[in-house]
Amino acid sequence: AQKITQTQPGMFVQEKEAVTLDCTYDTSDPSYGLFWYKQPSSGEMIFLIYQGSYDQQNATEGRYSLNFQKARKSANLVISASQLGDSAMYFCAMRTNRDDKIIFGKGTRLHILP
Amino acid sequence: KAGVTQTPRYLIKTRGQQVTLSCSPISGHRSVSWYQQTPGQGLQFLFEYFSETQRNKGNFPGRFSGRQFSNSRSEMNVSTLELGDSALYLCASSLGRLAGVEEQYFGPGTRLTVT
Lengths: 114, 115
Fold this sequence. Notes:
The structure holds two protein chains of two kinds. By secondary structure, chain A is an all-beta fold. Chain A is built from no helices and twelve strands. Helix content of chain A is 0%, strand content 54%. In chain A, the strands form three sheets. In chain A, strands 2, 5, 6, 10, 11 and 12 form a six-stranded mixed beta sheet that branches. In chain A, strands 3-9-8-7 form a four-stranded antiparallel beta sheet, with no helix packed on it. In chain A, strands 1-4 form a two-stranded antiparallel sheet. Chain B has strands at 5-7, 10-13, 19-24, 31-38, 42-50, 53-57, 64-68, 74-78, 87-94, 105-106, 110-114. In chain B, strands 2, 4, 5, 6, 9, 10 and 11 form a seven-stranded mixed beta sheet that branches. A four-stranded antiparallel beta sheet of chain B has the order 1-3-8-7, with no helix packed on it. Helix content of chain B is 0%, strand content 52%. The chains are: A mainly beta, B mainly beta. At the A-B interface, strand 5, strand 6, strand 10 and strand 11 of A face strand 5, strand 9 and strand 10 of B.
């Protein structure tokens, strides 16, 4: 069965430090995509970054990068130079080619401290 | 470019009633997905529509239904509401995987409270 695990329910990080949010996944489908979303307190989900299972390089989008370790089934999100506005809930998600539904992890609440 | 809009933003209903939520995708987007978010179950996929056809469906009872119109606007309906249906319902639109695009844009959600 497909599964996404985020083991950090909450994190506190000093402003300007780098942050790594953990995500592990489980699937037997060789073709899948991994996503990270940010959900501020306003409730709206914001797409951050996408990594395909066959992508050779780790995805990057501005201050966000995805540390994709396929053998370990790990897709950690790295935020460089954190900002106060990064305080939010972060969700890791996966869609497999076979199932074609997006499943989400339970999320990590990130607090950036001034 | 206008984002995804959802109406209403807040809704209070009584057990046994039915409710219809609306989602207008970004112009040009043909794929609309619906999600339910609760503190206990987290984010769960409800269904996805593309060009008026339901492409995929999550593990929800038949009380949850949806449709998509020719202008890509989508509605979801929940009949015979139960207390457990209280949740934030999120709609997301995208160009669709057939267009080779994975990125989804979410609306602000509809907060449904069932009393």
